[in-house]
Amino acid sequence: MQRLVADLANLLAMVRQIVGAIARLTWVTAGYGWLSLVAPIAIAAPSYFSGRLNFGELMMVVGGFNQVNQSLRWFVDNFALLADWRATLQRVMGFRETLLMFGRDLPMEERIEHAEDPANRLKFENLQIEKQGDR
Fold first, then answer.
1. Distance (Å, whole) CA 67 – CA 94
2. DSSP assignment letter at 73
3. Is residue 122 part of a domain?
4. Is residue 21, in this structure, part of any structural domain at all?
C-alpha cells in the first residue's frame, strides 16, 4: 500500500511539472506573439514621428518584420508536429525491428516467407491458418 501511495505521489509530481512547463511555455509564446505585434511599430515609430517615414512606409516596415518573423517562426510553430512525427516513426521502426527479431527465433518450417510477385501482388509461402479448435 505504501508503494502505491509513493508511486501515486510521484505521478502527481510529474503531472504538476508537466502542467507547470506547459503553462510557462504558453506564457512565453503568448507574450512573444504580443511582443511581435508591438515591437515593429515601437521600433519604427521614431522614424514615423520625425517625418522620415510616412504612414504607408511604416506599415510596409511592420509588414516586412511580420513576414520575416513568420518565416523564422516555422520551426517553433511546427515543433509539436515534428515531435509527433518522430515519435510515430520510432514506434514504426521499433515494431518492424520486433517483427524481424521475432521471425529469426522461429524454426525455418514455421516462418512466414514473403517474395515479390511479378504481377506486383502480395504473396506468402508456407502460410497456414488454423482455426482455434484445430490444435
1. 40
2. T
3. yes
4. yes
Q: pLDDT tens, position by position, for the chain (135 residues)?
A: 889 999 999 999 999 999 998 898 888 777 777 888 888 888 899 999 999 999 999 899 999 998 988 888 887 778 888 989 999 999 999 998 887 777 677 776 666 666 677 787 776 666 677 777 655
67 and 99: one domain? Answer: no
User: Can you read off the three cell numbers belonging to residue 103?
Assistant: 521471425
Q: Are 115 and 125 in contact (CB under 8 A)?
A: yes
Same-domain pairing of 29 and 56: yes
Q: Which residues contact 66 (CB under 8 A, 6 or more apart)?
A: 36, 40
pTM given for the model:
0.44
